[in-house]
Amino acid sequence: MCDENPALALERSAKTTVVRDIIIETLREHPNDKLIVFTQWTTIGRILGRILDAENIGYYYLFGCLNPNDKKRNIKCFHDNPDASVLDQIAGLKCGGQGLNLTGANRVINIDLWWNYAVEQQAFGRVFRIGQIKETYLYRIMVKNSIDGRLLKLQNDKLKQINAALKDYDPVKQRLSASDVAGLFGRIRREPNSQLVVERDYEDDVDEGHEDDEDDRDEDDEDDGDEDDNWGERSNEDPVDDISQPDD
């Protein structure tokens, strides 16, 4: 409960300590820059707010539970107030990381990784977009030997799958080379002078195919003859008396 009760001692975690150091160093070297901090957890956001209070750094919250009017007011104050250097984004990447224009800031700190890398890029896109006049920076905070490593691996695996799927639709790689076309007509052999020569490799297969076709046709002809003979024998049979002769 240290995030709600200021009387309780506050112990910083590894991530909040790094975030604090990044913010302090940035404002010392670039006092006109503004930062946005993304986190998935309200508790972490409130703890970060207490850390900023202790350093006398102005900030605004953007909670997911805030009503639309409060969100708009905090965003406007963050842009217009020169003393507000940090927008503490405690709404998750999907809530505050999509559809907003936050070009008043030019630095983004992401405390919690998301399994979908595209969602993180959407969050970074709040500042890296048309209207941004400053150089932008993205910080991704990860702790070694933690769940962050697994999330990072999951992101990389998904990116590999996406890249592999997109490569199939690369128009440059879809074009056939001269060797590809020549290979349709036979075996390709390269001469000592680097010239490509196409050797016929299908003649024997074609001859065998013709012989098979002839055998098939002979068998078909014989079968057809047998069917005709049998049909002729059936047609010469006398009609059944019960059907052809009327009853007395």
TrEMBL record:
SMART domains in alphabetical order? HELICc
GO terms of molecular function: ATP binding; ATP-dependent activity, acting on DNA; helicase activity; hydrolase activity
InterPro entries in the cross-refs: Helicase_C-like (IPR001650), P-loop_NTPase (IPR027417), SNF2/RAD54-like_C (IPR049730), SNF2_RAD54_helicase_TF (IPR050628)
Q: Which GO terms describe its cellular component?
A: nucleus
Pfam families reported for this sequence: Helicase_C
Q: Which CDD domains match?
A: SF2_C_SNF
**Lineage start:** Eukaryota, Fungi, Dikarya, Ascomycota, Pezizomycotina
According to the entry, every stretch annotated as the Helicase C-terminal domain falls at 18-170
Full protein name? Helicase C-terminal domain-containing protein
**Which GO biological process annotations does it have?**
DNA repair
Recorded hits in SUPFAM superfamilies, A to Z, give: P-loop containing nucleoside triphosphate hydrolases
Specify residue ranges for compositional bias: Acidic residues.
201-230, 238-248
Region: Disordered; residue ranges are 197-248
